Amino acid sequence: MTYPATSEEAAIDKEPPRKPRRKPVDITLLVSGITIVAIIALWALAAALKLVSPVFLPSPLVVLKSTYTLIAVGFVDSTLAQHTGASLYRIFGALIAAIVVGVPAGLAIALTKVGKGILDPIVEFLRPLPPLAYLPLIIIWMGIGESSKIAVIALAMLPPIIISTVSGVKSASRDHINAARSFGATRWQLLWHVILPGTIPSILTGVRIALGAGWSTLVAAELIAAPRGLGFMIQSAAQFLVTDIVIAGIFVIAIIAFLFEILARFLERTMVPWASHR
Asked: Are 148 and 262 within one domain?
């Protein structure tokens, strides 16, 4: 038996379907875009009014043309792709070496007193030292080949990765550790299935910090008999006051570093989604 609909039910049935809400505009992204446009506009205005000599501040259009020339023709016997490839090879080689050494070293410092006693003084010795301080020593030991450049960049990357790993282990959830122990997990199972996954967000943060240190060290490392590389290209252009090439090289490094940052955030969302929403 059916009953007639009440006035409230009839009103609900007559209501039009609600439109899905639009996602709010990301204010931070909008402000960042406006800031970049404003800086470029001020730069173009200063160059057009010749507030600074074109030798020291070329216009954005001149830098853009120089970038195209770098891509098509090159500078100091190498194209932009060759300079970028050489620098990426050194950065990635140093990053892999720093991760392979730094993560186990951080675990050893955080989990064992012996490891902390051995490795902690070494980390604290390296951490405040600028790479240029030990670059001559690395060259004496390893020569002027690729190994010395990768080694000095890796040493600059090592402390952030070790310290971030130690921080990640110390911030591991005690509830998860106690739960795993109650189920009879061994020390290796505890390390592999509980502690290490919980440390990944901190390790990724350390990698992001290490990449910044690596790029700043790259320029110094490529000064030592490097036939190509972004740092070598910038330094060579600076010696001849080719400012447009210098600015173009700086922008290329900034864009690559920005892409690395996006990749690191993507890996964090993919590998540890619970940490990216904290």
From this structure: yes
What's the distance, Cα to Cα, between the start and end of the chain in Å?
53
What span, in angstroms and rounded, lies between the C-alpha atoms of 204 and 174?
21
Q: How many domains does the chain have?
A: 2
10 — phi, psi (to 5°)? -65, -40
Contact 88, 211 (CB under 8 A): no
Cβ atoms within 10 A of the Cβ of 196, count?
17
What is the pTM assigned to this prediction? 0.78
Q: Chain centroid to CA 126: how far?
A: 20
DSSP state of 75: B
- Look at residues 33, 55, 77 and tell me which one is the last residue of a structural domain: 55
Average pLDDT of the residues of the chain: 82
| Rounded Cα distance, 61 and 63, in Å | 5
Q: What one-character DSSP code corresponds to residue 28?
A: H
Whether the Cβ atoms of residue 253 and residue 215 lie closer than 8 Å to each other: yes
Nearest CA-CA partner of 152 in 140, 167, 170, 165: 140
Over residues 145-177, the pLDDT tens digits come to 888 889 999 999 999 999 999 888 887 766 666
Burial tier of 10 (Cβ tally within 10 Å: 0-12, 13-18, 19+): exposed
Q: What share of the chain is helix, strand, coil (3-state, %, to 5)?
A: 75, 0, 25
Which CATH number goes with the domain that contains 89?
Answer: 1.10.3720.10
Residues 101 and 171 reside in one and the same domain:
yes
Residues sharing a CB contact under 8 Å with residue 119, sequence separation 6 or more, in sequence order: 105, 108, 109, 162
- Which residues constitute the domain of residue 49? 25-55
